[in-house]
Design a protein that fits this description.
By secondary structure, the protein is an alpha+beta fold. The chain has 2 domains: about 160 residues, D-amino Acid Aminotransferase, Chain A, domain 1 (2-Layer Sandwich); about 120 residues, Nucleic acid-binding proteins (OB fold (Dihydrolipoamide Acetyltransferase, E2P)), CATH 2.40.50.140. Helix content is about 15%, strand content about 35%. The chain is built from 6 helices and 17 strands. The strands form 4 sheets. Strands 2, 3, 4, 5, 6 and 7 form a 6-stranded mixed beta sheet that branches. Strands 10, 11, 12, 13, 14 and 17 form a 6-stranded antiparallel beta sheet that branches. The two termini are about 20 Å apart. The C terminus is likely disordered.
Length: about 300
């Protein structure tokens, strides 16, 4: 695994496991928006209410996360936050507009100073995603011990570049998990036996595994409901069918594919797993939750390399 860059020109933050969201405070109103430009106002009303206390004319970038009993971000808890008593907070890590003017071209260290001022009187559940002190090796060891998803290194002179991979923001993943696109499923009496998932390489959706763990009957029913309107006769995966010796267990050969139903690749799921195999398949995968905050086309093979955001 690649190492985090070191030096005084880098800033380090925790890689948060939640919903990326922009908050726009202007003309006396607040909009909390997902990366797909969907409103999150009604889903997280307490966050929206707290954002009303911030000064007008700002746009901030951050992550909505649910915290477990040890204060660690948990995407699984976030999926079920309406039925639990876990705190849901909005960690803010960047400032895009201030006093009605864009500052995306201003260096990060300057934007962060302005962000400190913007959030000086912020109240729960609004929090600043603090910069971490320490060497990369010390921070990685601490994040690993605490069971965190990973770390982000950002050049202190970098401009804001959402979604772009310039090398100015570097992601270091500790856990083995990532977002993947659902492209099909194998039907069963319970709804489905497994989900066929993959990621994009350019315009090609690449099949990487079948996910059959992490489901309960109610969750399967909810997921099946999301399939409505996405059914298609065309397999969306560019690298199928597989040869018979492609994997342990049943390979998705042309014959095996006849047992599957295909979906337009629009749904994104958070998937946990223990590792990648040499054949680039998932090992011991499990379903964690659906993601409504990320377009399917943005799902790529996540590695500890340059990334445009958290």
């Amino acid at each position: 695994m690649a190492e985090l860059p070191a030096g005084d020109d880098w800033q380090y933050e925790i890689k948060l496991d939640g919903y990326r969201a922009l908050a726009i405070r202007q003309k006396g109103d607040v909009d909390l928006l997902s990366r797909r430009n969907n409103s999150l106002n009604s889903r997280f009303p307490q966050i929206r209410k707290a954002l009303e206390q911030l000064e007008d004319g700002i746009i901030v970038d951050g992550e909505v996360v649910a915290l477990d009993e040890k204060g660690r971000p948990s995407f699984n808890l976030l999926q079920n936050h309406r039925t639990g008593n876990y705190p849901v907070v909005y960690y803010v890590f960047d400032l895009l507009a201030w006093r009605g003017r864009s500052i995306v071209d201003v260096p990060l260290e300057t934007r962060r100073k302005a962000l400190d001022e913007v959030l000086a009187d912020a109240r729960e559940p609004i929090r600043l995603s603090s910069a971490l002190a320490g060497s990369p090796s010390v921070l990685i060891a601490a994040a690993t011990e605490q069971g965190l998803e990973g770390l982000i290194a950002k050049r202190t002179n970098s401009r804001y570049e959402s979604g772009r991979r310039s090398g100015a923001w570097v992601k270091y993943k500790i856990d083995k998990g990532q977002e993947l696109v659902i492209g099909g499923y194998k039907p069963a009496a319970s709804g489905f036996e497994n989900l066929a998932v993959g990621y994009y390489e350019g315009d090609r959706l690449m099949f990487v595994g079948k996910v059959k763990n992490g489901f309960v009957p109610a969750l399967k029913r909810d997921i099946m409901a999301r399939f409505k309107g996405l059914e298609t006769n065309a397999c969306p995966f560019d690298n199928l069918p597989e040869p018979k010796n492609a994997r342990r267990g049943e390979a998705l050969t042309a014959e095996a594919m006849k047992k599957y139903r295909w979906l337009k690749p629009e749904l994104v799921a958070q998937i946990g797993f223990t590792d990648w195999t040499e054949a680039n398949h998932l090992r011991h995968s499990r379903f964690i939750g659906l993601r409504d905050d990320k377009p399917a086309r943005d799902v790529v093979h996540e590695k500890p390399v340059a990334a445009g955001g958290s």
